[in-house]
Every structure is written in structure tokens, then in C-alpha cells.
């Protein structure tokens, strides 16, 4: 792709996202006031963390691969299947409609995007048809509340045939505000709050500096209480996994932000060793000697 073509494509995509963002913001009655979230991933505000389990291959009303997410609500005894909610695009308050092959729930992320004290859930459905664009993909936010996830909104994303927006998502909420990353085949959309209940974001940024995309994550890797973002590409060269970039932008040379010493296809940030800093964990699920895992690791591999 030439530089001129890439710039034109990026400009058009940004214009489309911006138009959607403005429209969504206009429809909303405003943004909720900031409130603390004392327990991470507490969707219903009962003081216990909840767990979101993806089920993108779930059959819904006879539709194969329509997809679902299962929320296991926490309690003093932990989580169990006895206290759960199965959410699909056929559920009340969920945008869109359940359709065969959408893979709703292929990705998910949890953060308090509207700062109302309840954790919200961002869900990707990478094979959703949008207008005439097949497999354009979509991202949905379901708002946390005392009654759980009972309402939601579509988030603005790039719409292009086979774009597969939502193949991965990441979300962050901290003292520096709220952000969402929506990964598609070739780019990643970064949405920055405040977010409105209609799904509008204050601003958007289209990352296309890394090329072919696979995964994204948020965390605080340097202890400054601000969001650090991780973008991971698909397989590159002789690597089993892809390259990982930390806080890269289109304006700076991406290779200056490439992490050395590891590769992978999935990513997450967490404090593995308890030192107060987020650690980047990259997963490589492929087995060697297969078409998908030509350079894989026996049993898969994890890099920290």
C-alpha cells in the first residue's frame, strides 16, 4: 500500500468514526458524574468482582455462531454458575440482532467507562454485517448497573468489508479517564472518554502504524496511574506470534515502541510479581508443524 493510499484510507476512516461519534454524543442526555469503583470488575455494585466468559460459538434461537457472553456474578463464596446471566444480541437492551456467524462475544473487556461506579463490558462481534459490508465487525458496550447488564450502545468503529472490527477489544478506566481499543484486521480504533450512554466518545484516533492487527491490551506498566496501551500484530516473519508495541502512534516510528524479547498473538497486562507495576503477558496458542502454527511452541507458550 502506498503512503498516499494509506493516508487517504486513514482520513476516510477517521471521518466516518468522527461522524458516528458526534451523532452519538448529540443523542445523549449527558455523561454520568465520576464515581469511584472500589472493587474491580464489579458490574452490579454489590462489592464483589464479577467474571465475563466469552461464548462466541453459542447457538442463539437456532442460529449457529451467533454468540454470547456469560456473566458469573461474584459473592462472598466466589463465583458460580448458580448466579449467572447469559447475554446475547437477542437479550433485552442489547443493540443489534442475533445473527448466524456474528460471533458476538469473541472478545470482551471490563472497565467503568461512564464513571458511574459500575463496571461496564465492551464486547466484540467481528463477523457482524454492517450495512452491505460483510464481516465488518462491531463493538458494543453494555452498561453496568445494580440490575446487571440491562442496556447498551454500539461504539463507533471502522466499517469496511471483512474488517472484522472487534476481533479484540481492550478497555481502561483510571484517574486519567476512560479509553477503549477496538481491533480490526489492519487498524485499531482508540476511543477516549468521557463516554455517553449512547456510545459516544469525546475523541477517536486510528492506529495504523503497526499493520496487520491481532490483539490489544491496557495496563499501567510504569506506575504513573495512567493508561499504557499494547498493540500486537499477527504473525510476522519467522516468529510464531506477532510484534508487540507499547504506546506507539502514527506520528512516531513504531519500531521505537516495539517490545524486544517476546512475541505472541494474545495479550494482557497485570501485576504478575506483585511489585506494583503492570507486566505484559503474551500468549502463543499455536502448536508447531501446522498451517496456523508453522513456528509454534509445543503446548503453546506464554511470554512475560
TrEMBL record:
SUPFAM superfamilies: Integrin alpha N-terminal domain
Keywords on record: Glycoprotein, Hydrolase, Repeat, Signal
Leader peptide range in chain numbering: 1-34
GO molecular function: hydrolase activity
Gene Ontology biological process terms from the UniProt entry: cell adhesion
Superkingdom per UniProt: Bacteria
Keyword field contains Translocase: no
Gene3D superfamilies from the UniProt entry: Integrin alpha, N-terminal
GO CC annotation, single: integrin complex
InterPro entries assigned: FG-GAP, Int_alpha_beta-p, Integrin_alpha, Integrin_alpha_N
Keyword Oxidoreductase: no
One Pfam assignment: FG-GAP
PROSITE patterns from the UniProt entry: FG_GAP
Stated name of the protein: VCBS repeat-containing protein
Organism: Streptomyces sp. SID7499
